[in-house]
Amino acid sequence: MKHNASRTMVALVTAAGIAMAGAACSSSSSSGKSGKTGSTNAADGVADGKPLDPNATVTITIDGAPGADQAANKASYADDLQAFKIMYPNVTVNAKPYVGQVEDPAQFTASLKAKNETEAFHAYFTDKNQVLDSGDTTDISAYVNDQTVPGWSQLLPGVKQNLQDSGKTYSLPINYYTEGLIYNRDLFTKAGLDPNKPPTTWDEVEADAAKISALGGGVTGYEDYSGGNTGGWHFAGELDSLGGQMVNSDGTKAAFNSDQGKQVLQRLHDMRFKDNGIGPTPVTQWADAFPPLATSKVGMFLGAPDVIQHLVEVLGANPKLYGMGPIPGASGPATGTLAGGDLYYFKKGLTPNQIKAEIAWISFEYLTPGKGQFDFARSKALAAPDKPVAIGIPQKFFWAPSSAQMTQVQTDLKTSATLPIDQYADFVNNPIAPVLEPPAAQQLYKVLDTAMSAAMTNANADPAKLLSTAETQVNQILANQ
């Protein structure tokens, strides 16, 4: 998913019916006690690594509860609050609703500076540095384990790395996605390819794209972006898949003018001008990629799982057409893939029992198979009969494929999914290490748009020169950060 579009990921997933619901409640302020070292007041609890006492009396605040524009999800969230109340009768959850976008970047930054966040507050993976730099978040390492967060030890390493810093844990995840290869199974079959074996290397993608394009009738084997910041965004994803980097380790210099960067552009150039695997008109805007995918005019495309959701729910495509595999790499599945997600941080100054109560609620609503956002049966029951709903996109899969949590998720989906989940097995069973977006991502992507466009539209394009020019421009951008 495109970076600025990922800012609405929570809202998009609710559209799929995966029950991230909301209740409009008022916000309250923290008591001011420190959850990091514990409290001398017995009623405040202790940081002992145990779950919250079911009899504890605690009031907590949290944002990210869907508001008036998400009626069905709001009702589901309210139901979940009632179920949670049965487990913890003396816990009051004051949930602050949102309308539209769950997080406005400017408002989020202002809230951190003013230190007026809710006690548990929503953020994106890419917000980690500014949250930690604010000094207004709590180390919850002493509170998280398999007792307090069932499945904690089974979280994917790529998920955990976004929750932690210098060995300390500061947040819990509520959404996680990586990119993969989305492909049209029907076109694979027509081209003589095995629809159950998507390509796992870029050499295979190039060869398969040529065969699909050879079908004619306006069909393109592979589709890629070249403008609107999407070209640079896809360049970054393809670079990551080969083990390359957009910037150096401290984010001060461009690093994409490398062998891997040249491979990305040279391959796209060859696919366009030698193999005919890419059509003559690359896509310049995010949304423009989807109509050809929905009408079986494109064989393969890189994207997050919500692309399938968009094709089914917005464009009315047949979900049986699409499979998903891991993003290809040089000699097998990629070494890295662009990733993103949402999480909750814990405001500084909470009592141990407040931290425990926040963890209990977040675990119940967002991290428990069969409950909250993983209550697929409820999502299916609430779906409008006259509107397609995509239940079962391979997203928010926080845990190792062999874990008890993923086993239950997959079992539940077998009876409640509206999508052919077996067609995403290659993607689900081969999780790729996540790579977060670079600093000044949108500015860097805009620069790389030019290189991507030239590679796919100019028969005489020179990848080395294109990247050298882009490198100079990006270094100027990074120097001003």
From TrEMBL:
Gene3D superfamilies: Periplasmic binding protein-like II. Keywords: Signal, Transport. It comes from the Bacteria. InterPro entries: Bact_solute-bd_prot1, SBP, SBP_1_CS. Residues 26-42 have a biased composition (Low complexity). Residues 1-21 form the signal peptide. Residues 26-50 are annotated as: Disordered. GO terms for biological process: transmembrane transport. Coiled coil: none annotated. Belongs to the bacterial solute-binding protein 1 family. This is Extracellular solute-binding protein family 1. It comes from Catenulispora acidiphila (strain DSM 44928 / JCM 14897 / NBRC 102108 / NRRL B-24433 / ID139908).
